[in-house]
Amino acid sequence: MSTIGHFINGEHVADNNQPKPVTNPATGQVIHDVAMATVETVETAINNAYDAFPAWRDTTPLNRARVMFKFKTLIERDADKIVALITEEHGKVKSDAAGELTRGLEIVEFATGIPHLQKGEHSSQVGRGIDSWSEMQPLGVVAGITPFNFPAMVPMWMFPIAIASGNTFVLKPSEKNPSVALKLAELLKEAGLPDGVFNVVNGDKVAVDTLLTHQKIEAVSFVGSTPIAEYIYATASAHGKRVQALGGAKNHMVIMPDADVDSAANALMGAAYGSAGERCMAISVAVCVGDEAAEELKAKLLPKIEAMTVGNGVNDPDMGPLVSADHYAKVRSYVDLGVEEGADLVVDGRDLSIEGYEDGFFLGACLFDNVTDEMRIYKEEIFGPVLCIVRVPDFETACRLINDHEYGNGTTIFTRNGDAARKFTHYIQVGMVGVNVPIPVPMAFHSFGGWKRSLFGPLHMHGKDGVRFYTKMKTITQRWPSDMPSVAEFSMPTLK
Ligand code: NAD
């Protein structure tokens, strides 16, 4: 069995330190191991990125953008291979993996516009004979630490913009699916990226802690669960780094009495059960305003759940397995808990077994009704194919429920009432909001990020915020000798 190593300074680096198994979730079989980087290995990656920075910073923005253009064509060329890697190590179905790759590719496309995005501002004659401008300079070596659930897209939220704006990068992907990051590193090299600009270290807490505390790291982008996001934010900030740390979620869909319930039910199927619910923007709570809306929704959902296909992602069914045996056990235990807590388990996916894949981590779709805000299955992120229906008497209670929740990543409302939709988008305490759409994931040229305990730090991912995060502003004020003052001035300059 092979052990996956790292990618440092333009080369694959073999390593056999404390290998951890990587499993195909559909078969339950270990397919290879992945090495856990030591402090020294991570330091080697950081030092190479540090050495590569001056030349890359001084490469013209157009030439940096050209690497991104080439990278885009290489991703398109090898899309099938990348999709196969995602499905093999993550479990998500082929078409969903292709969707993830496309959303990542869109950030690469956005980053090709870096000569425009990184332009500063200029004011002439701010004082007599004085001009002033600001420019956005890269930070230096920046790090990305990413979760298992989007092995291509989430790293691509980060490094295309970071690199295009002149930084060098060290990525620490999830140890559950390390192969995609290495493939992307190979393609970046083929696209002409100089060695050392993009590095991948595989590993665990040892690698992460080295990145968070190392003097040569200027900024840390993190996506993962809230407890780790909070730790990353606190630790890296305490070590003087710029940090954006995106955490967990519990996303609600409000179904108003006037909603098009057919559309809401279709939207919920994909949003709740797509990718086996392992999406930070998955909808895990359907908030029905009134019992009638709840009954109607349930009646529409039941046959759709019954008709869902579940299996190995390579065959492109509706839903694949969960990522690991541990995660399967955790999600399943939440279903047990929901029953103990008194919610009505309307659809029980616990007994699912897929012929030929008896060792895979398959959990069927689960649906709870009459869930209340006291229950842990409501409060906590389950991150599996478990949808909870909560019944509320009115719109105000629906909004209060969402605003009181500790997470504020995404939410959406299904309604025909423009007034309710407007109030919802304006007042709801959530970072990404939809109206009559299932998962309001912003496009590459907007920014992605939640509120409350779904994001630590002021700047969201990609879009303008992404460029701001990976650049620091310098403001220059300039005068030439013909306009120099002839006498010394001791008062605060006011540029009259
Ligand atoms: P995770 O927090 O377990 O791991 C994320 C990364 O942190 C991995 O690279 C992992 O190796 C590292 N890590 C784990 N434990 C660590 C520790 N103790 N110290 C230092 N580093 C550590 O998350 P996951 O299970 O891989 O991903 C699922 C979570 O990510 C869910 O909570 C999901 O909501 C969240 N997520 C959020 C977003 C978002 O945009 N807000 C997007 C995707 C996923």
Automatic annotation (TrEMBL):
Residues 15-24 have a biased composition (Polar residues). Residues 15-476 form the Aldehyde dehydrogenase domain. The keyword Secreted does not apply. Keywords: NAD, Oxidoreductase. One of its GO terms (biological process) is thymine catabolic process. It holds the Pfam family Aldedh. SUPFAM superfamilies: ALDH-like. It is an enzyme of class 1 (oxidoreductase). Residues 1-24 are annotated as: Disordered. Its EC number is 1.2.1.27. It comes from the Bacteria. Gene3D superfamilies: Aldehyde Dehydrogenase, Chain A, domain 1, Aldehyde Dehydrogenase, Chain A, domain 2. GO terms for molecular function: methylmalonate-semialdehyde dehydrogenase (acylating, NAD) activity. This is methylmalonate-semialdehyde dehydrogenase (CoA acylating). It comes from Umboniibacter marinipuniceus.
